[in-house]
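re: that chain from earlier
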Amino acid sequence: MTKKIKLKKHEDRRIKEGHLWIFSNEIVKPDIDIQNGEIVEVYDFAENYVCTGFFNRNSLISVRIISINKIEDLKELLRQKILRADKLRKDLYSGRNSYRMIFSEADQLPGLIIDKYENTYVLQVYSFGMEANVHSIVEILKNDFNAENIFTKNEEYFRTLEGLPIKDEVYLGEDKETIIEEFGVLYKIDFKGHKTGFYFDQTDNRIFVERFAKGKSFIDAFCNAGGFGLHALKAEAKSVIFVDSSKSEIENAKANVELNSLPLDRCTFIAKDVFDYFEELVNEQKLFDIVMIDPPAFAKSKKNINQAIKGYEKLNRLALQLTKDEGFLITSSCSYHLDDEEFINIVKRAAYKTNKNLQLIHFYNASMDHPRLPAMSETKYLKFGVFKVYQS
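^ sequence. v structure.
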C-alpha cells in the first residue's frame, strides 16, 4: 500500500501551479517507516489528494513529484514519460541522433538526466527515487531504444546534496569512445571530460554563430571540445583561437578540427587559464572580430553569487577589451543563481568600464532539448547573449 504525506496548511498552491518539489518544512512530520526513494502520495491539509512523488528524508527536497495522478504501474509510467520525451526531441530536431533525451524535472522525471550519443545512453541520477528504479530505466532503454551502451557519469556535488553514494556504473556494454554529428560538425566523445561528455545545451547557440563568422577572427574561450570554434570554421572564419585551461580539452578540440577536415592552418590551440591569457592579449593590444566566452558556472550556490558576479564582470571586461570596433562579443553563463537581468547588467557594467557601446543582437537560453517548466525557474539556467560592440 502506497504511503502518504500530508502538507501543512496552504502549502499545496505552488504544487498545483506546476512546481515539482515539496520541501521538508512544508509537510507534516512523515511516518518514520517511509524509506528514502519510496513512492508516496501527497495530500493537502484537508486530506485531498494532490500528487505522487519520490520521498527522501535526507534532503531539503523531501518529495520530488513524478505525477499528479495516483500510480498503478511505476515502470510503465517511466516508460511512457521517456518515450514522450524522446518523441519531443525527434519532432524538434528531425534526423538528429544525439541529444539530451531526458532533462530531469523539465520532463517530469525528477533527478534523471539521459544524454543520447547515437546508441550510447549516458545517465546522471540525482534523486533517491530514480536511483531506486535505475534498473527499470536501463531495461526501458534496452527494450524500447535498442541501446548498445548504458552507463552513468554522475557529478559528486548533486549526488552529495541528495545523500546518494558517489559512484558510477556501467549497466550495458562499455563507456567506449564514440563519434556524434551536430548539424554538419563531427565530435569525438571519449566520456572523460565534463558533464556526460558533451554540452548539448549550447547546440542551438553554436549553430547561431555560423550566421556571422565568415571571414572573421574568432576566439573560442573555455572551448572544451571546440564546438563554437568548429562551427565558426565551418562558416569559413578567417582564424580561430581555441583556449582552455585543460590540456586534454585542447587536444580534443584539435582532434575535432582534424576529424572534420577543417583547415588547421587557421587554428591556434592554447592550453592556459583564460583570464591570464586574455590579460596577455590585452597587454599586447590584440583585437579580434568575435570573442566568445563560455565559462563554467562560477556560482553553484547563492552564497557564492557576489564573488561570481565579480568574476563574470572581469571576464566580460577583458573580452570587450579584445573586441574590435563593430565586432561581436558572445557571452554565456550557466550559473542558475544568476538570472537573465543580472547577467545583462554584468555585461553593461563591463561595457561602461571599457568605454564600449553595445547592441544586443540575440539572447537565448539552453537548446530546445532542454525544455523549461514555466512553474519552475530551477529548470532555466543558461544565458547566451550576442552583442555588437562599438567604440564610445
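The radius of gyration is 23 Å.
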